[in-house]
Amino acid sequence: MESRIMYLSEALKTVRENQNLTQKELAKMSGVSYSTLTKLETGVTMNPSFFLVVKICQALEISTDNLLKLITNYDVKTE
Questions:
Q1: CA 38 to CA 34: how far, in whole Å?
Q2: CB atoms within 10 A of CB 46
Q3: Residues 6 or more apart whose Cβ sits within 8 Å of residue 77
Q4: What is the pLDDT of residues 14-59, one digit of tens each?
Q5: Contact 72/7 with Cβ under 8 angstroms?
C-alpha cells in the first residue's frame, strides 16, 4: 500500500469517517463547535491551536502522535 502525506483537515476527516461519526457528533463529543470543526475539515482554518487538536483527538480516541503520523507520513519513535 502506497502511503502519502495528508493535510490536517483530511486526516481529521478520515479518522472521523472511519469511526462512522458525523461532524455534529464529533463536535458534541469534543466540545468543539460544529462551525469550528467544519472549518478545520474543509481547510478554512489552517493553523488550529494545539489545544483544539488535542480535544478532537481525545474525542476520537487517537493520540496526537498517531494523527501526526497520518499528516507527515512519519513514524514518530521515542527512545
A1: 6
A2: 10
A3: none
A4: 999 999 999 999 999 999 999 999 999 999 998 899 999 999 999 9
A5: no
